[in-house]
Write a structure and sequence with these properties.
By secondary structure, the protein is mostly helical. It contains 26 helices and 6 strands. It has 3 domains: 137 residues, no CATH class; 455 residues, Growth Hormone, Chain: A (Up-down Bundle), CATH 1.20.1250; 34 residues, no CATH class. It is found in: Membrane.
């Protein structure tokens, strides 16, 4: 069996030592009937903990209180000592707070309120989420500005030759480069400067700096007079897009309670979709302004960045970032603005602290490059890197529609004006169908949403491509069916692959590697988005719409397989509890999916002979809670075995 190491006193203390043996545990005046770490020997011989391990379990009340006193005294929180003692007891057994005698009825009232009504949280939390949503809207609007402009700026700059004309193939590559320029720069540079910007200026400061870039560059793009200048401006735009995209979801994840973190962080996709929709609307509004239409379409993307730059300074800084900087007083003040009571704030903050202590034990890198290398050298982090890379890689195909929907609709037989209006329909579907994910992402789960929607996305893309075989003589039928299946694709995308990747990547990395991990994930998304955006114009000519859509349908099926094998479920786990999930070796996870989950699903769903559900495979962690000397004695390691 696996062993877990806890810190216990070297000499006998007037408390009981905890054992994780599946029985009830006495903890001073507190008794828990839900022990963590209990194993069940089933599921094909795989060993599964009954609950994810909590580093505070195995500690007596005396030990917890001593640790809390040391924590408060060392971090300027002496006046909050009693509050943190209560918070630590709740963090040890968050579901059994009713039995904690130290809590008052008022304390229990707010704990019940936050537990029974998962949407009941302070207004400041939702205000901050709204600010993050505006940051997402800037992303969507920046994407769609070039969509409408594609219909006119190539001719303005003399790069609009068709493929059968001299220089036509070259012009298509140039148009692809101009469209993909923000993503190229974001992947190669923008996302990677988010780490030093976060380190120097914090989450809020980094978002403010990037919002200034997102104000200036769209305006500048409207004043360019050559494709080279436009490409250069859009490269600078990519710096802001990349750095912001790597920070905003991470910032939202660090502020959000675990039980609604998915719904709040997926606001990135919801409001990115809203930005895409509004961008399409703006494209249509200015379509009749003549030769300056494309300039207005590109330039209008600065609009949502203005309120973002203003509102972000009314939001609290990330408590976890402040703790990382050793600013615990500020961290508690910030956390208290995001929770109903100081007791709940102390619970979340102290739990994050004890796990941060554990993470720092395996942290190796002290500079930018060493921390980047840790994404691939620390096993737990490497698995998060793989999983986030897979979900981000699977997302990039949607940008073909976001960038080129007007071109695609034009190819199907629409006029330019009709293509713009059809693109508005795509944006509306993308936005509206993101709402169901708010209510399912924390219950049905991230992984489940992906596995259910990817096959449907592949079918709808393939069907859209096949509609191009309909004769142009049946123009109404042809254009209508192409639009229909593209809309169906957008609906399935918005429920699954739309909301999951950015919020999944924002939550799976430990705090020590979170900035670098999110940068990696966004770089994967933007890097492959730039490749697809660059190659799509040429691919559309070489393979025809039928071949292009068929290829992307195949990519969706490949993505489904990668998600099934490499992406674990993370719903309703705290950012700190995810460590046990990603401690499972990759091959063990694959074997579990193929040998246990798949047969169980087949028996239950196809043969109708099975029942129940299969628990996620998690690994027991080795925790050694750091406890300093007390009265001249030091806590030593005592091995506590899981029976």
């Amino acid at each position: 069996m696996s062993n877990i190491v806890f810190a216990t006193p070297a000499t006998a203390a007037p408390t009981q030592t905890q054992t994780l043996n599946g029985n009830s545990k006495e903890n001073g005046n507190y008794r828990s009937d839900k022990p963590y770490g209990t194993h069940i020997e089933n599921a094909g011989g795989f060993e599964q903990p009954n609950d994810l391990l909590n580093p505070l379990h195995g500690l007596t009340k005396e030990q917890i209180f001593y640790d809390v006193e040391h924590f408060c005294n060392n971090n300027g929180l002496q006046d909050k000592l009693d509050i943190f003692k209560k918070g630590a007891l709740i963090a040890q057994a968050p579901e059994d707070y009713e039995r904690i005698q130290e809590l008052t009825e008022d304390d229990k009232f707010y704990l019940r309120k936050s537990t029974k009504n998962k949407w009941s949280h302070p207004k400041m939390l939702y205000f901050t989420v709204i600010a993050c949503a505006i940051g997402a809207a800037t992303q969507g609007w920046d994407q769609t500005g070039s969509n409408g402009a594609n219909l006119s700026f190539p001719a303005e700059f003399g790069i609009g030759a068709s493929v059968d004309q001299p220089g036509g193939a070259r012009d298509e590559w140039i148009v692809g480069f101009v469209n993909s320029a923000p993503y190229i720069c974001a992947a190669l540079f923008g996302v990677w400067i988010s780490d030093p910007l976060n380190n120097l200026f914090g989450r809020r400061g980094e978002i403010f700096i990037t919002s200034l870039i997102l104000i200036a560059t769209p305006i500048a793009s409207g004043f360019t007079h050559s494709w080279q200048a436009l490409a250069a401006v859009r490269l600078v735009l990519g710096i802001g897009m990349g750095a912001k995209a790597a920070t905003v979801p991470m910032y939202a994840a660090e502020l959000s309670p675990a039980n609604i973190r998915g719904a709040l962080v997926m606001g990135w996709q919801l409001w990115t979709a809203f930005g895409i929709f509004i961008g399409f609307c703006a494209n249509a509004v200015v379509k009749d302004t003549g030769r300056i239409a494309w300039r207005l379409q590109l330039g209008s993307a600065f609009i949502p960045a203005v309120p973002l730059a203003i509102l972000i300074f009314f939001c609290p800084e990330s408590p976890r970032w402040l703790m990382k900087k050793g600013r615990y007083v500020d961290a508690f003040r910030s956390m208290s603005r995001l929770r109903f009571t100081e007791i709940i704030a102390a619970r979340d903050m102290y739990y994050a602290y004890v796990v941060l202590v554990e993470e720092n034990k395996v942290k190796q890198g002290t500079n930018y490059f060493k921390r980047a290398i840790e994404l691939f050298t620390i096993p737990r982090v490497r698995r998060a890197t793989l999983a986030s890379g897979v979900v981000m890689l699977a997302q990039c195909g949607i940008n073909i529609i976001a960038f080129y929907s007007s071109t695609i609709f034009s190819e199907s037989g629409y006029t330019n004006s009709q293509a713009l209006y059809a693109s508005i329909g795509f944006g509306a579907v993308n936005f509206v169908f993101a709402f169901p994910a708010i209510f399912t992402i924390d219950t049905f789960g991230r992984r489940s949403l992906l596995l259910c929607t990817f096959p449907l996305m592949a079918i709808s893309l393939l069907a859209a491509g096949m509609m191009f075989f309909i004769s142009e003589e049946s123009k109404v039928l042809r254009t209508g069916l192409i639009a229909l299946f593209i809309y169906i694709f957008a609906a399935f995308y918005s429920v699954g692959e739309g909301p999951v990747p950015f919020m999944y990547s924002a939550e799976v990395f430990p705090l020590a590697q979170r900035e670098q991990g999110m940068a990696w994930a966004v770089a994967v998304c933007f890097g492959f988005s730039s490749v697809l955006s660059l190659t799509f114009p040429r691919m559309l000519r070489a393979l025809k719409p039928q071949g292009a859509f068929g290829a992307y349908a195949a990519f969706n099926l490949i993505a489904w397989g990668l998600i099934y094998l490499f992406v674990p479920e993370t719903k309703q786990l705290t950012l700190e509890e995810l460590d046990s999930l990603f401690e499972v070796k990759t091959m063990d996870f694959i074997k579990y999916q193929t040998n246990v989950v798949t047969p169980h699903w087949f028996k239950r769903s196809i043969l109708r002979t099975g029942g129940g559900s299969v628990r996620p495979l998690v690994a027991p962690l080795t925790h050694q809670v750091a406890m300093p000397a007390r009265n001249g004695q030091r806590y030593e390691d005592e091995e506590t075995k899981i029976m």
